[in-house]
Amino acid sequence: MTMTQLISNPSAMHTGIVDHALSDFIRSTADRHAEENAAISQAVTAILAANKSVSNKAIIIWLVDALETTQDVVMCDVYRNALEIVVGHTVDDI
Fold it and tell me: Residue 79: which CATH number?
């Protein structure tokens, strides 16, 4: 699914996310953070396609990799903001 398709279909954006706080945030902010939510969904789709477990850690790793490999300045901002959202909704290990 492309970023444009993900943005236009916000209900599909949180599919596969196990963390309920993150999933709820994505659902409740679909309008305000459409591109970031689409980037997170893109990460989840890629993780599932690789037959890996979806976790906040896996999403963070995917977003960092995307941030390091993209040349598009606008997408770097989207990935950085998405990364902030996921990190902000990740419980620290105690």
Answer: 1.20.5.5260
